[in-house]
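Annotated sample (chain length 158).
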Amino acid sequence: PLIYGPHYSDAIWLQHYLVVTILFSFLHNLAGFLLISMRLERFLLFVYLGALAFNLTFCWLVIPKAPLWGAALALIFTKGGMALVTFGFIQRRLRVFPLADMVDMVLSAMASVLGYWGSLFFLRRGWALLVGILVLFGLLQYFWKFKSPLRKIENAKP
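Output written by the structure step:
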């Protein structure tokens, strides 16, 4: 309440949606540093300029009709678009994550979320969160142990 003032209740629901920008920022910053190290600063500059143009246009169109929600969507879409373009470029050029590994991670995350939501019917929130995390770690351990190419190299006999 000290920071947000009387509109504190709006901040609570808004932050639930804005949390996804942390992932977008991480992916974009990682890709941005890789682009700079590959001497592709101009490409990165054009991504920033395109994102700026999109953000200004989106804000101009949406914020007058829905100020808080429009600003949040502008932030989410801009950061998501930048992450998609920069990390997509790096993925295409360097093959950072093989497609099969990305599918494994996404499916594990989805199973974890389903485990969390499903256990909320029977458990308190903290215990349900523990169920979701255990599902995630269990599946990632399974994929690492049985599907990882690094494990196959480690287990190969000379």
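Annotation: Residues 67-94 form the longest helix (28 residues).
Annotation: The chain has a mean pLDDT of 89.
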